[in-house]
Write a structure and sequence with these properties.
4-stranded parallel beta sheet; single chain; Rossmann fold; two-stranded antiparallel ribbon; 9 helices; alpha/beta
Length: 213
């Protein structure tokens, strides 16, 4: 925010934020307490803490006690050992069970193929941060964003659609959830037939509520 406000071409009343997937939870934390953010938009937003605690409605909840135990064991730096890392998504698309939720099957196809793969993304995370993720509640104080506007975009076929619906229920006005017919969570990353209407909606949202110009 400090950088944006330092730019002569930036209208301070025209600053909004946008989060996709996990950052669709993080942007809430920023906006809840920083009133320089005048509008919040998300696409396929996810509450990672809730995902760690409960899992998806279509899958078994994670074994938190076992995860916490392994997370504690992974704090090894004080003993001079390298940090323990785990894969974020299955190492190959073939490793994903056929009955896995759509999100888990599609994100592997996205992140581990030329569709969305990047050489700087190594598909690892620190195991010791599991407990920190589980403590996070991205949408707990979503009501604090009001009276600034909130727009959440989700696919009608997304496993994560319920996150947006629950957040909108808690939020105060002005608020809106915009559903993209037939889209899954990951399809809103790069499938033009779903991305285009999402971008059009975001464009009209920011034009309506931000005072840039």
């Amino acid at each position: 925010m400090i950088f944006l406000e330092s730019r002569n071409e930036v209208d301070e009343q025209g600053i909004g934020n946008l989060g996709i997937c996990t950052s669709g939870g993080y942007v809430f934390f920023a906006a809840e307490t920083d009133e320089r953010i005048n509008g919040v938009g998300t696409v396929s937003g996810v509450d990672m803490g809730d995902l760690f605690r409960k899992g998806l409605p279509s899958s078994m909840a994670p074994n938190l006690q076992n995860l916490f135990k392994e997370s504690g064991k992974a704090r090894t730096e004080a003993r001079g050992q390298p940090p323990r890392m785990e894969h974020i998504v299955s190492n190959t698309p073939e490793e994903v069970p056929k009955d896995a939720p759509t999100l888990y099957r599609e994100r592997t196809d996205y992140y581990l193929t030329p569709r969305g793969q990047h050489p700087n993304s190594k598909n690892w995370f620190l195991l010791k941060i599991v407990d920190q993720n589980a403590e996070n509640s991205s949408y707990e104080h979503v009501d604090m964003i009001s009276p600034r506007p909130l727009l959440m975009i989700a696919g009608t076929n997304a496993d994560t659609r319920f996150f947006g619906e629950e957040a909108i229920e808690k939020a105060k006005t002005p608020k809106e959830i915009f559903l993209i017919d037939g889209a899954t969570h990951v399809a809103l990353y790069d499938k033009r037939e779903h991305v285009d209407p999402a971008v059009d909606k975001l464009n009209s949202f920011y034009k309506q509520y931000l005072h840039a110009g």
